[in-house]
Amino acid sequence: MDSSRKTAIIVGVLFIIATLFLFVGKAFYEPILLSPDYLETAYPNRMTAVFGILLEFACVLAIPLIPVFLFSILRKHNEPLALGYFGFRFLEAVLFVLVQINTLSLISISQGYLNDGGANAAYFQNAGRAVLSWNDWNFFFYVLFFTVGALMLYWVLYQSMLVPRWISAWGLIAAIMLMAGTVAEILELLSGFPAGIKELVYALPIAVNEMVLALWLIVKGFNPAALEPTHEDRSDVGVPVADLS
């Protein structure tokens, strides 16, 4: 098995980890920490919530490793975008950690509320709202970094044809949809729609696309024709540049 085939398998597995653990972890803590009655439920159910957050932290390892393993392949086609992809995914991972740590603070707020016996409910409600508001804005920038990075990745994949162009085009469109949906959420333009419906429209396409890309890389790998050395690469293997004209 050559190095490019190993890279394709590793990247495919990392994409699955980054997406799967995100949704699985969310399923554990979201009903507790993001429910309307989180002040009453967060602290008593803290073990489940913490377990869900820890599952999501697996994404933190996978997110920046994807561009690290892809760099040697992407740089042959567009080194600035390969570097940019790594930079935005690194920023995405940093913001992810900050949002999750901040989300965990809701457990402490719930504990304070319960210990206080509800005497200062308004204080704890305001503290919780401040945390959630901070998370909303940080999540916006998290999605911004993710979508910019995704656009860089899929544009290089589209131009290079390392994977079928229908996968790359789907990724470009899905990334734009996710960004548009997130902006609409921040501006409260979709407040009349159920949360599940909204996520189905603008978040599911990119999630499914990443799983399709991951499976393609694991099963098929990169297009061998697109892995051929470029004009510049040949000068690095002992072939005089003048002979290539």
Shape: elongated
> What percent of residues adopt helix (DSSP H or I)?
over 70%
- Proportion of beta-strand residues: under 5%
Through-space gap between termini: 33 Å
Domain tally = 1
- If you compute it from the alpha carbons, what radius of gyration comes out, rounded to the nearest whole angstrom? 22 Å
Mean pLDDT: 85
Give the number of helices: 8
Describe how the helices and strands are arranged.
Elements: H1 3-33, H2 38-41, H3 46-115, H4 121-160, H5 165-186, H6 195-202, H7 204-219, H8 231-234
Describe it for me?
The structure is a single chain. This protein has 245 residues and is mostly helical. It has one domain. It contains 8 helices and no strands. The C terminus is likely disordered.
